[in-house]
Design a protein that fits this description.
The protein is α+β, with helices and mostly antiparallel strands. It is built from seven helices and six strands, in the order H-E-E-H-H-H-E-E-H-H-H-E-E.
Length: 203
């Protein structure tokens, strides 16, 4: 529906589901849509989405060496999550907590992570597992450590869980810039021209 609506508005539309796991240690599939005005770029736009980088980062690379112990699950919560997973397993469902592999990638960080952190738990020797700290979620999404977290843990988890991975957007943006450069080379006048109702106007 979105694709068709954009085409009806005169855009050349490209859409693809991209997994951010090549840029960050997280399985995070999102659909990205890129549009080019046909009146400016024509109908034969040679746009290609970026390929997934090989040998992406591992979860261990973003984990704190000495995490704050207040993020360790209480005995009550840990028992609840184990019982919950057991009940659903017996019913043939796949619901339950996820113990992340430090040498792999995590599940998708969601905005509900603040509730119990069950989708991404980190094992600890001799202790209950823990949830990710907000700063680790920041790294998991690919945001720079130099950006201060100025909100509560709850809001930080929500915001990171709702975000897109900046490194993926940057990789797509670089491909868009290539197309703009390609079009400027074709026009040879340093302008992006759009044919309007009263002739040609510069964009």
């Amino acid at each position: 529906m979105i694709y068709e609506s954009l085409e009806e508005l005169g855009y050349k539309v490209f859409a693809q589901i991209i997994n951010a796991a090549g840029w960050v240690p997280q399985h995070r599939e999102r659909i990205y849509i890129v549009c080019f005005d046909k009146d400016v770029f024509g109908n034969e736009v040679p746009f290609l989405f970026p390929e997934l980088p090989e040998n992406g980062p591992k979860l261990a690379e973003i984990l704190e060496a000495e995490p704050d112990q207040r993020y360790t699950l209480t005995d009550h919560l840990w028992k609840y999550l184990q019982d919950y997973a057991k009940r659903h397993k017996e019913r043939g469902n796949g619901f339950g907590f996820g113990l992340a592999d430090p040498q792999g990638v995590s599940r998708t960080l969601s905005a509900r992570y603040f509730k119990d952190g069950s989708e991404i738990l980190i094992s600890q020797a001799g202790k209950n597992p823990r949830r990710l700290m907000p700063v680790e979620c920041q790294r998991l999404m690919g945001f720079d450590d130099r950006l201060s977290i100025v909100v509560s843990d709850t809001q930080a988890y929500r915001q990171f869980g709702n975000a897109v991975v900046p490194k993926v957007v940057e990789a797509i943006a670089r491909r868009i810039v290539r197309i703009v450069a390609w079009q400027l080379t074709r026009t040879k006048n340093g302008c992006l021209l759009k044919r309007g109702g009263n002739g040609i106007a510069a964009s």
